[in-house]
Amino acid sequence: MNFSLYIAKRYLFTKTGNNAINIITIIASFGVIVGSLALFIILSGFSGLRTFSYGLLDVSDPDIKITSVKGKSFLITDDIKQVLNNNASIEVISKVIEERVFLEYNDKSEIAFIKGVEANYPKITQIDAALSQGKWLDTTFGNTAVLGRSIAYKLSLGVGSFGEPLQIMVPKPGTGFINPTKAFYKTNAQIVGLYAGTEEFESKFVFVTLPQAKQLLRFKDNQVTAFELKLIDVKNADAAEELQEKLGAHFKVQTKEQLNEVFYKVINTENVVSYLIFTLIVIIALFNVIGSIIMMIIDKKDNLKTLFSLGATVKEIKRIFELQGFLLTFFGMLIGLSIGVLLVFLQKQFGLFMITANLAYPVEFRFTNLGIVVVTITILGFIASKFASSRISKEFIER
Question: pTM of whole model > 0.85?
Answer without folding.
Answer: no
